[in-house]
Structures are given as structure tokens and as C-alpha cells.
User: Fold this.
Amino acid sequence: MSIRTADSPLMNSVFLDRWSPRSFSDEPVTNEQLDAIFEAARWSPSWMNNQPWIFAYDTDGAGREPILNTFMEFNRGWASAAPVVGLVLAKTDLEGFMSRTRDFDTGAAMMSLALQATMLGLSVHLLGGIEIDAAYEVTGADRETTEILCGFVLGHRGVISALPESLQVKEVASDRKPVSDFAFRGGRITETPAS
Ligand SMILES: Cc1cc2nc3c(=O)[nH]c(=O)nc-3n(C[C@H](O)[C@H](O)[C@H](O)COP(=O)(O)O)c2cc1C
Assistant:
């Protein structure tokens, strides 16, 4: 595992400042912040500029509880404190071969969104642990043309002591495998990356 050091080659701290907390405060996310966050997602790259991503979200409106209820129990407990809750979807009805990268493209948009949120002093936490059938119902998405990928919450970080003790210990930025495990100059993958 690499260590987060001051001599990191990164040119901007946003890459390390972004991590996934479970503690959120009730400070609202403003409409201006939401505009900036989704605008960042808007400018993401996608194959043939297909822009397959869809974000279904709410703050304190009628959609909040239904969206929260799509989150699996182990996520819902802490996620319910976040002022913005949402679901990430992708269009599947793209022309032929271009459909292959829809999840990749949507992931790129999600990362742009998360980095912009970080620059605004906010945090995003993605949630693979959601009920897919419920998410189709809540969003009204068509199963023939749309896939549900994951949930997300967004907000200001909160007080760690408000979390259950079992989660408090997890409230730290995690580390990563070294670059040599996944970047191979010359194009030949010489070692199987450790899992
Ligand atoms: C697609 C996806 C699904 C995830 N699902 C969950 C989840 O259901 N619950 C959770 O607590 N974290 C979830 N995470 C967060 C990851 O555990 C987290 O991003 C990873 O451990 C790296 O930590 P970091 O984001 O703090 O750097 C998910 C992340 C991604 C990208």
C-alpha cells in the first residue's frame, strides 16, 4: 500500500481530499452548489458524446424518503443524515457497440461530480448496497432502456461521535495499492494485480 505523503506527485489535493465519509451534518446543500456539482458531471467524456448518465435525487422533498428506502439497511442508518440522497442510472439503449462503455462513462461523470463536490467542501459517498427493484419503482425508470447502478449521498461532513462506534473507526481516508499494480508501461500486463 502506498502512503499519503507530502512528496506525492499529485498536483492538486482534491484527489486525496475526496474520500467517502459516513458522518454527515444537517447543513443543507444549496441550489448553487447542486448546480455546480451537476454541471461538473455534465462536462464528462463519453463514447460518441452519448452522455448516458442519469442522477435521480432529492433534498428535503417528497422524493427523499422513497430514495432513502431503496438503500439497504446497512447503508440507510448512516446515510439518512445526509441532506442529499440519490440514485445513479445509465441509459442502456445506446446504438450498438457504444452501449459497452455506458457504465464507464457514468462512472466518469460520477467522479467529476464527486471532485467538484470536494472542491466545494462537500463529500459524496456512493452506495452499491441498494434494492434494485425498489430503485426502478421510485425513479420510474424503464427497465428496457435504463439500468440502476448505485445510490449516493452528498453533504457536509458531520460529527464522527454521532455515528455508532463500529462505524467511527472507519471514518478515515483509506489507502490504495501502488501504481505499479495497475499501470504497465509497454502495454504488457506483467503481473496479475493483487486483489
Ligand atoms: C460503485 C461503488 C459502490 C459502493 N458501495 C458502497 C456501499 O454500499 N456502502 C459503503 O459504505 N460504501 C460504498 N462504497 C464506497 C467504497 O467503499 C469506497 O469508495 C472505497 O472503500 C474507497 O474509499 P474512499 O472512497 O473513502 O477513498 C462504494 C463505492 C463505489 C465506487
User: Anything to note?
Assistant: The mean pLDDT is 94. Residues 19-20, 75, 126-129, 150, 173-174 surround flavin mononucleotide (CB under 6 Å). The first helix runs from residue 14 to 17.
